[in-house]
Amino acid sequence: MKKYITTPIYYTNGAPHIGHAYTTILADVFKKFEQMKGNEVFFSTGTDEHGQKNQHSCEASGLPIDTFLAQQSQLFKDLFDRMELNYDHFIRTSCDDHKKVVRRVLQDLYDRGLIIKKSYEGLYCEGCEQFKKKTDLDENGLCPDHKKAPKVVSEENYFFRLEPHRQWLKDYIISHPDWITPANYAKEVLGMLEEPLDDLCISRPKNRVWLGIELPFDSDFVTYIWFDALINYISILKWGENADFNSYWQNSYHLLAKDILKPHCVYWPIMLKAIGIDPVKHCVVHGYWIGEGGVKMSKSLGNVVDPNEVIDLMGVEPLRFYLINNMGVTSDSPISIGLLKQGYKQLANSLGNLQMRVLKMVDKNLAGQIPADVSLTADDEALLQKIASDFTSIYKKDIALETAIELANKVMESSNALNTYFANNEPWVLVKVPAQMERFKQVVYTTLDALRLIAIALYPLMPKASESILQSMAVNQKPTAQFVAKQLSSGQITVPQPLFPFLG
Ligand code: ME8
C-alpha cells in the first residue's frame, strides 16, 4: 500500500528548534514503521516562505529576499540531513511548481464565484499569521501562543466562504472518529464549529505584504500565507498531473502540533472540498514541547532548545528516542538539556546495559557462541511470546501519536523487564556450577532472543542502534515487522563499543 506522510512546512523567520525537529522525526519514525510492514511511503517536509512574518525577518536581516529565504530554508534542510531524516521531498513554497498549483486553485475558485472582494476590519496576530476573534485571546487580550496583542487591521480583501461547509465538516468529523487523533483534538475542532465561521480572508494587499504569490486575478494582492501553504500538500504530489495522486492521497497523514489545528482541520478540508478533493485521511496532532518559562517553545519567544547542540552532546538517535518516548499523548511536555541527559542515562541503563551484559557473558563463557541448541522452559518461552505478541500488536496499529509513544514506551518496558529477568536468574552464579550449565544457556538464549525482538521493534526509533544490536548477534537481515520468538540461530556474537557511552 502507498502512504503519504507530511510535516508542516516551517516558517523561515528563525532557525529550527526541537519542536520542528520533533514533528519531522515523528514523520521519519512513521515512514520506517510503515516500511517495515511492507508499505511504500512518501514523506514530505519543507519551508513556508511567504507572508508577513518572513517578510519582517527578511527586512530585519537586510538581505535580498532570495538570499534570505535560501539561507533560512537551508538551516532546516541541513538539520534534517544531519539527523538523517529520510524525507522524499523538501518543498520550498517559493518554487514555481508550487506557485502554479496555488494560482490554479485560486483562479478556479474565483471563476466559480467562490471568492469575493469586500472590506474588512479584524484583529491580526502576525505570529499566527491569522485574524483572531476576541474569544481566541487570553484574559489580557493577548494571543495565547505568542503573548502579544494582535493589531487592528482594516482593509479591502478577497474572501472565501467557509460557513456553507460548516455542517458538512461537523458531520464528517462525527462520522470519522479517527480522522483527527488523539480524539481530544477532534473535540476541540468540533468546538470551533459550534459558531458560524467567518469568511476566510485569502489575500493581502501588496502595500502591506509584498512577500507572497500574486493573485492571478488581481495584481494588487498576494495570496494569504495559509491559503498558499496548505496547498503544498497537493502541489508536492503534482495534483492534476500525477496519475498516482489518489493512491497516495487516500492514505495520507498530516502531522502537526495543536497550534495549527484550525488551518488544517477547518480551512483545509473546506478548501479541498471546494476543489473536489477528499479530506486528508488522518490528522495526527501533538502537543508542545515546553521550554523555559513554562510556555511553548517558539522562535518568536526565543526560549528554544537547539537540536544541533543536543546532537553535539549525545548524537541523533538518543534525541530521537527521547522525543518519541517523552511526549505526552494529550499533554504538553517539558524539555531541557538536563531532561535530555536524564533520558539518555535511562536508555544506557536499560537497553545499553542489557546488550552489554548479555554479550559479555556469552563472549566470556561460551566463546562467543549463541547457545541456540538449548530447549527453553515454559516460563522462558512465555516471556519471549509476550514480547513478540506485544510488538506484533503495536505494529498492527495505524500511524498515530499514541502508536509511536506506545512503541517507545514498550521498548523501555521490555528492556527493563529483561534486565530484571537477567538479574533474578543470576547467570554469573549459574555458570560456575556445571550442573546448572543448561539453565545458564537457557537464560542467555532467552535474553539474547528477547534482545533481538526488541532491536527489531526499535528500528523506526533508532535505526542505527537497532542494526548494530542485531549485527552484534550475527543477525544481518533488514528488520521487518515480524516478531517470532526463538528465531535466533547459532552464530558468533561480537561485543561492540557501548551504544550509549558515559556523557561526562
Ligand atoms: O505554523 N512543540 O510554521 P512553524 C512541538 N508555516 N512542536 C512544535 C513546537 C513546539 N514547541 N514549535 C513548533 C507554521 N513545532 C506554518 C505551517 S503547514 C501548511 C504551515 C512544530 O514554523 C509543530 O509541528 O510555526 C508545529 O505545528 C510547527 O512546528 C509550526 O511550525
Can you offer a commentary on this structure?
With 504 residues, the protein is of the alpha/beta class. It has helices spanning 18-36, 51-61, 65-82, 96-111, 166-175, 183-192, 225-230, 232-235, 245-249, 261-274, 307-314, 316-326, 337-365, 378-395, 401-425, 427-430, 437-458, 463-472, and strands at 2-11, 40-48, 89-92, 115-125, 130-132, 151-160, 180-181, 200-201, 203-205, 214-215, 218-223, 252-257, 282-286, 289-290, 333-334. The strands form 4 sheets. The chain has a 6-stranded parallel sheet with strand order 3-2-1-12-13-7, with helices on both faces. Strands 5-4-6-8 form a 4-stranded antiparallel sheet. It has a 3-stranded antiparallel sheet with strand order 9-11-10. The mean pLDDT is 96. Residues 8-11, 19-20, 22-23, 48, 229-230, 232, 256-257, 259-260, 288-289, 296-298 line the site of ligand ME8.
Strand content is 15-25%
Strand order, sheet with most strands: 3-2-1-12-13-7
Q: How many DSSP E strands?
A: 15
Taken from the alpha-carbon principal axes, the silhouette is elongated
In this entry the ligands are: ligand ME8
Number of helices: 18
Largest sheet: 6 strands, parallel
Helicity level, as a percent range?
40-55%
Distance between the termini: 46 Å
Low-confidence stretches: none
What do the pLDDT scores average to?
Answer: 96
CA radius of gyration is: 26 Å
Q: Which structural class fits the helix and strand makeup?
A: alpha/beta
